[in-house]
Amino acid sequence: MIDLRSDTVTLPTEAMRDAMARAELGDDSRDRDPTVRRLEEMAAAMTGKEAALLVASGTMSNLVALLAHTGRGGEVLLDEHSHILRSELGGIAQLAGLFHRIVPAHRGALDADALAELIAPRLAANKLGTALVCLETTHNSAGGAVIPLACLDGVRAVAQKASVPVHIDGARLFNAAVALGVPASAIARHADSVGFCISKGLSAPFGSVLCGSAAFIERARAYRRMVGGAMRQAGMLAAAGIVALREMVDRLAEDHARALRLADGLEAIDRRLVDPRLVDTNIVMVDLAGTGAGAAVWAEALAARGLRAGTWSATSLRLVTHRHIDDAAVEQAIATFRGVYGELVRRPALAG
Q1: pLDDT single digits (tens) 31-51
Q2: Angle at the Cα of 179 (from 175 to 181), degrees rounded to 5?
Q3: Which residue in 61, 111, 117, 335 is deepest, having the highest Cβ count within 10 Å?
């Protein structure tokens, strides 16, 4: 079975398993686990921040960042298709007690002029004060789009002028850095905090790391406990994250190249399916609107032929390349799409 549903399906490497078995351990919520500490120090250095905090997931990283920046209260400005709004079950309001306002954006890149109109340095008689600006790169809903550095710089300038902090949801931060050909710190410098996953394309089995100033991380550590995220002997998991950061970042370029090859192959079947020019990293969005069959029908037909794809909407699929998808798997995936296309489009009666 070729699994293109997500890069979260990646399994740890043998080097990660060995490191996990040998990890030096301690109670992280009391005296700090020594291996967790090493991972956090490495993450802080790679993002150019003072400190870092290991948390359970990207969703927890965003929630803790929201709480640590705002203390519950105020308005958050962000893109309507952001993961925080689309996929985190309303934690921004339910748990962080924050109101959100939408900023116009193109593939995750906020319009700096619109942001300047919306941002409010403080509470006023007719306007809620802006507590935080959030960005996401790579942008999940935009098919792994990378926000250009110039856009990050523009957003940062607007936020700084209003004395409002910026948080980057960088679940796939290193995919963005590899695509731009810059270190992760070149992206993170445009924000007060950034979170990234050590799972997904980096292949560790668990966890995300939130990075920021020492004072911010001290607050974040308290909020992590509040939401049930304090951990004990977490060094076993952190050990895999250390290997991920040492050994798995550069190879993300292979995933990007294979995603582009996959997009080219699907475009060759039908130009309406994919625009390869929109593939920045390891995510390929497939538009099925012109095929006469919905995403659920396509996913079922593909699975019957040995390919698992993620349904993104009623008429679209999301395909994600990762280290378990080699060149042969990409070619097989293209061939599988071609076969299903013949069933569902050329013989539409079978679409159901």
Answers
A1: 899 999 999 999 999 999 999
A2: 115
A3: 61
